[in-house]
Please model this.
Amino acid sequence: MKYVAIDHETDFESWRNRARALALNAIPPDEVIWTVRTGTAEIFEESLLPTIESDVTFRVAPAFIELAQDAILNRSPGRFALLYRLLWRLRSQPGLLEAATDADVMSVQKLVKDVRRDEHKMHAFVRFREFGKGKDARFIAWFEPTHYIVEKAAPFFERRFADFLWSILTPDRCAHWDGHKTMFTEGITKSAAPSSDPLEDIWRTYYSSIFNPARLKIAAMQKEMPKKYWRNLPEASLINSLIADAARQSQTMIDREASSPRAAVQHRASAVPMTGQTNHSSESLSRLRDEAASCRACHLWKDATQTVFGEGPQHAPIMLVGEQPGDKEDIAGKPFVGPAGQMLDRALEDAGIDRTKVYVTNAVKHFKFVPRGKIRLHQKPNAPEIKACRQWYERELASVKPKLVVALGATAAQCVFGKITQIGKNRGHVIDVSESLKALVTVHPSYLLRLPDEDAKLREYRQFVSDLKLATAYQK
Model:
């Protein structure tokens, strides 16, 4: 009998190297006992490892490697033996993985399914808490995974929360994002993890407000959000009471007399910006600017200096829409006054457009950034932030009543059309939005500033000016 030790619980390379040596030495699966290396037995275990007596190697299907890399993350103690048994059989049965009813294939598929489900749960149920303020702020979460999935799940959080520093603490491994890369450290106990922050009360209030007792299905809810995760969710303290009160609330909703939609709801349903028809048509820009100064529709106002509203004539025939104010705009309180604004002014002049006669604004009215020492680095607005600010674009559009809207960049295009719109496929021609409104899509002037190659910069600038020249027909 051979005793083979893996270096640690999730070390796929360690398992693969030892499995290859065993297979090449013709040691069958039933003669191998797999363990995870421990300090006390390390020398003894190593002395029993077989040596490779031949330079001959072998290959297996990439599908098996993919399955094995996920299966080894499962906490099942029999996973190493199962994988070696499959490897041993694959050498004589190359198509084994296609045998859906094979017991070993079914077992490894179950391990992989459990790992991937656990990864999904981690993505869904991690709750960050904020500690510190300003440049010292860090977001920390505690999570207890079923399997060894922390490193597998980390890339999701890198993409989703790239704009701030965070740590995810677990009993197995801890992940720490510094804004550029993720570092991993040993796991800790829950007692060592910080808990509670003021945002949890806000989250609980929101959760209560969206809870619909009429659609409650307890079995389905517990299947999607098992009770094991409740103890680490701030909203979990509300679940039992909300379930208990669901029947009463549902009956109250049934007994309540039907009512007519509120005026505000009727207005929002009819205020479709693409048609150019809205009940805000009589609002003046000065009134809108004053109202927007205290906008709290999203969180961006907290760190921004001020709301940066649009600027230009009340009834300009052309409206230019950018992404968001930058550092200079945030300080000045006016759109397009920084480097991108200077590039835009130059291009407008070359295209034959008088900036003083167009209305210039942004899809998002507050500066989104991440501090890096004394520098505030621009951060691209996300979909909820664009959606929260779109009301101001709608009302500006209704007040100005332009003939043409020019969307500068992808964020602006998403705001104008209400959906993600590719620049490359849509630039260079005027698009009919409604009978009274047309749109033109082009790049944001900051794109030109980021190009490192001078030839490319000149070529793209000429294309930018060419796009803007299409707007000259709408100046009067």
